[in-house]
Amino acid sequence: MVDDHNPELIESKPLNTEIETLAPEATAENTSMSSDSTPTETTQIPTTPSENPASGQIAPSLSASTSDTEEEAGEVDYDDSDFAAALASFDREQAVDAAAAQNLTAEEVIVTGTLVKITDKHAIIDIGLKAEGLLALDQVNNPDGTPKFAVGDQIEVVVEREETHGGGYIVSHEKALRHKVWDVLEAAANSKTPVKGMVVSRVKGGLTVDIGIKAFLPGSQIEVRPVRNLDGYVGTEIEVRVIKLNKKRGNVVISRKELLEEDQNAKKAVTLATLEEGSVLTGTVKNLTDYGAFVDLGGLDGLLHITDMSWGRLTHPRDLVNVGDEIQVKVLKFDKDKQRVSLGFKQLTPDPWLDATERYPIGAQVRGRVLSVTDYGAFVELEQGIEGLVHVSEMTWSKRMKHPSKLVKPGDEVDTIILSVNPNDRRISLGMKQLQDNPWEALEDKYPTGAIIEGRVRNLTDFGAFIEIEDGIDGLVHVSNLSWTKRIKHPSEVLKKGEKVRAIVLGVEPENRRLSLGVKQLQPDVWDTFFAQHRIGDVIKGKVLRTAQFGAFVEIAEGVEGLCHVSEAVDATGKPVELKVDDEHEFKIVKMNQEEKKVGLSIRAVGEEASRAEVESYKEQAHQSNSGGGGKKGGQGNQGSSSSSGSSSSTTLGDLLNWKRAEREGEESND
């Protein structure tokens, strides 16, 4: 049915096709009767249909005879002229129909049609023409695929063009709606009146919004700030403003951002008029970042920094607030020129550190929740804004704990003791081991000095070995306390990890949690034995162990070494004596220091001692020889004897040299 927009068009009656069902005999009979019958007896078949091309009005072109006439006339027989006339009438009707369709297409007249059926490709619409209208499925279905219309429903469409292949006309329901709302949209655009619409889908660069017709909402016009996820708007109703129209192309561009900015500016003006530092306002959390939250105060955003959110520790602002939360904040700083606002949340409550010393006295037992664990300890929250550190050294009396995570983990509830409180630095030191018995306090009574213990080697270091004597109690055997006789560079030379050993307690320091042990003390000290058996001046035999630029180290007893300085390694004549490793020589002890366990040796002193003995023997022989000369030179003999006796008491090295010289001269004369 043609819409009222074109009143000249009237409803056309369809061609009666009953003639197609007549038998040939009836056709011939009817032909003969038609020439004799009067106009009042039968309904004439007009040779020229009544038509009005301009208006599209089509009169009935062919009607069947009344049943009474057919009974009287009997069978009708049609000739070729009648068929030609009917064909010509049909062609004229087709021409009129085409002219009417062309008129509808050219003027884009709104036609009210009826939904006949829905196929897999189109919706078939009866638009009052001989051919039916073909409407795209997306115009009769909702976004979710459900139909908006049922068969028999009336649909307003605009005829766009004739379908070239399958027959029929391409029609558009959207264009019909667009024509109806176009005037409304033009008025809204001119007056900048907001319109409401439903977001239909996401398209490239923005959204499609149904505001009576499908309009394009660019992504940059959705919010005041850029939007990342456009899919979240699909299916929501929004208010927009028409900012661009193109009726010829049928394009409509809308904006939501303009309305939001106007609303924001209006609220901003009110907020700026009342905003001042120290005031408490209610705002809405708009956005979260790693460093804080942005709060909408009413057209103006303020920054709530993470450090001003809580007196305690926050890893992220989401631990306290979420987007959309309505919170109260305090204005800490306001720059009116730059329109920057700094906000605080924790400032609405008293600082818990102000009276922390009174509420957490030293020695008090408190319970808290482990917030985090580090290499050096664990942070425990005692209350909102108050947290303390349990250092790794204060967790257990044992030194064997490798990492605090072996003892506690985040979220654990633990009991602690207050060790110290520093409100200025906002620090509280906590202890856990103080709630346990200290094994070191009774250790001195349990393991007195001189007690022999047995333990397992737990660890070896460059300076000694740690021996575990019981759970959590380790003693140190210094490398110097491993052997009396061997010069040990590393404990691994005599001990192995995990080996069971016996040791003697050398000392206990409970306050420093130190236990000194010794292994060599289980055996007699060879140095003490040596010093007890020898004195300075003793001549002993020794073996060269090693040499150095300043002398040689000589083993003079098992486990006992002495040093022969290079200045002492000469014979009686002053000639240097070469000391080689493993050579054995006689040495004279010239120095002894029992405390430092040092012994000084000399080869020179041995030579001098031997030469002195030889001189005394020579002088004794000379004296006896002079005494035997008797009678002739008695006076001289006595004088010589007296002289010799005086030399014996006063001369040693000089007499030795003279004697040696005389001995060599005598050997040369004999030769």
Automatic annotation (TrEMBL):
Compositional bias ranges of the Gly residues kind: 627-638
Fetch the Pfam families from UniProt: S1
The segments labelled Disordered in the record are: 1-78, 614-671
Superkingdom of source: Bacteria
Keywords in UniProt for this one?
Answer: Repeat, Ribonucleoprotein, Ribosomal protein, RNA-binding
Show the Gene3D superfamilies listed in the entry: Nucleic acid-binding proteins
Here the segments flagged for biased composition (Low complexity) are 38-49, 639-650
GO CC annotations? cytosolic small ribosomal subunit
Which part of the chain is the S1 motif domain?
Answer: 108-174, 192-257, 278-346, 363-433, 450-520, 537-604
What terms describe the molecular function in GO for this protein? mRNA binding; structural constituent of ribosome
Composition-biased stretches (Basic and acidic residues): 1-11
Q: Where is the composition biased (Polar residues)?
A: 28-37, 50-67
Compositional bias ranges of the Acidic residues kind:
68-78
Q: Give an example GO biological process.
A: translation
The entry assigns this protein to a family as follows: Belongs to the bacterial ribosomal protein bS1 family.
Q: What is this protein called?
A: Small ribosomal subunit protein bS1
| Taxonomic lineage | Bacteria, Pseudomonadati, Acidobacteriota, Terriglobia, Terriglobales
